[in-house]
Amino acid sequence: MTEHLDVFLHDDHIGVITPTRRDRRQVTFAIESTYAGAPSMLTEGFSLVPGTKADTRHASNFFGGYAPEGNHRIRLASTARIDESDLFALLKHYGLTMAGALSIRTEKPGDHVAGKYRPLSTREVIRKLEKAQRDFDLGNEPDSGRSMLPGFQPKLLLARFGEDWVYPENLAHSTHILKPSPSHRPATIFDEYFSHQIARHMGLTGFHSELITYNQTTFLSIERYDRIVEGNTVRPIHQEDAAQALGLDWTDSAAKFQNPEQPRSPSRPTAQRIAELFGSFGDGSDMETWLRHLLYNVIIGNHDAHAKNVSILHKTNEASTIADLYDAVPILNINDDPSRVGSKKIGDELSLAIGGEFNHHRVTLDHFRAEVASWGGLSGRRADSIIADTLSRFGVALEETPSVPGSSPALRDRLGYNLDRISSGRAIGKPKMPLIAWPKGN
C-alpha cells in the first residue's frame, strides 16, 4: 500500500498526499470526495473539486511553498536525515503545523489529538534562540516539534500568553516568531522594528511586535498575523503567499523574484500578476492596498519585497483578503553606512520592477503610474489619490514614530530623504553623506 499523508484545513480532512514515483520534488494531492468547502478555500491557484486530483505540478509548488528556503531547508532536512528536495518527506517530518491553518498529518496518534504548551524559563528561551540561530531548527524538539515556516533567516517559533513564553508541542500552534540579531548586520532587527512602527502608524500592519532583551540577548518578537489568541486557545487563520498562488517553483530560490533578463517570464512573478491576483477576489480594494505596499517598500528601501513576502488570508466564511504588510526591512541605507566601506555591496535591484524599472535608485512616481496603468483595475485619478495619501501618511508616521536605539545610523534621515525625493517627482537617487537631518530644521 502506498504511503500517504492526510491533509487537514483547520480540523477538516480535505484530502490525501502521496509521493510521486518519478520526481521526489513533487507529490500527488487527491481531494476528499466529501469536501464541502469553497473551491478556493485552500488556494487561489487551483480549485478544490471533491473527488478529483489537483494538478501535480501546481499542488507540489503550493505545498512546497510552505517549506523553508536555502540553508534553512538543508539543515532541517539534514536533521531528519532526508533529502532537502524530497517534498513528501519534508511534509511528513515538518508539516504538522505550518503557516496558516494547514496541517499534514501521519497515522501517529499524536497527530490527531490537541497539542500542549510547556512553560519556558527565560534561560530556556535564550537557549532555544541561540540554538535556532545556530542550527536553523525553528525550535523544533525531536519528540514533539514538526513545524516549518518559509524563509531563509533563522527564527524561533514559540507561543506567548500574557508575559509567559511556552513551547507548543505537536499540534499546538505558535503565536510568535522570534528573530535573533544577525552577527553580520546586528542593526537589522532594530531597523525592522522601526519599520513595523511606521507601518502600524499608517494602518498597513496590525500585528504587535517588540524588541526584548534577556541577559544581554536581544531579539525581535513578532506576533503572528495568521493566529487568533483567545485566552490560552490559539486558532489559525489560513494563508498562502503570492508565490504559491501563482504556482511558482518551490525548489528554485530565485523563482520568487522577477527576472530582469526575462521580465515577462510566466515562471516568475511581477507586480502586475500579483495585482491581478488581488483584483480577482473581494471588492477590489486589495489592489489598492497592494499599491500602498509597493510604494511603502520603495520608500523604505526594501529590495527584498518578493512574491513570498506578500500573502493572502483565507478567512472562514469571509472573502479572501491581502495580509498585513510583513518582512518590510529597510535595506537601501546599508550601503551608505561608513562602516561598510570596502564591503561587498548589496544590490540595488528591486525584487519586482515598478513600471518596468528594476533599479531602486531610479524609481519615480511616474513609474508607479505606469505600473498601475498596466493593471487595468484602477483609474489614474484613483491611483494618484492613493499615492498622495500614502506619501502623506508616511510623512506623519515618520515624524511621530520614536527612533529605535540600535538601528542603523541616520535611518530616519535616509527614509525622509527617500520620501522627499519621490514626493517631489524625482528619483530616489543616492544621497551625499552625511545626510541632512529630516525633517529639515530639526
From TrEMBL:
Span of domain HipA-like C-terminal: 149-393
Alphabetical list of InterPro entries matching this protein: HipA-like_C, HipA_N1, HipA_Ser/Thr_kinase
Record's keyword terms, sorted: Kinase, Transferase
Domain of life assignment: Bacteria
Sequence ranges assigned to domain HipA N-terminal subdomain in this UniProt record: 5-104
Pfam families, sorted: Couple_hipA, HipA_C
Family assignment from sequence similarity: Belongs to the HipA Ser/Thr kinase family.
NCBIfam families: couple_hipA (TIGR03071)
Protein name in the entry: Serine/threonine-protein kinase HipA
Organism: Arthrobacter gyeryongensis
